[in-house]
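TL;DR need structure tokens for one chain.
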Amino acid sequence: MSESLETSLKELIVERLFLDIDPSEIETDTELSEYGVDSFLLLELIVAMEEMFEVKFEQSDIKAEVLKSVKSLADLIRSKQ
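>> reply
TL;DR here they are.
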């Protein structure tokens, strides 16, 4: 089950942020900034994750260490579900 959340996140990142890579190329532990994701794109991603996974993030959840990789984002989503 856990792998599917990461896979869904990778697909969401590529689709919603219009990245020119295949979702399978995103490594779970690699920082998203290495794929060209900046703070503006992260805000878009947060909205997309709230919609897709039916979670609500608080301002206190939105920290750099949480937003840095697919793994950290998946952990955050799990903590909200």
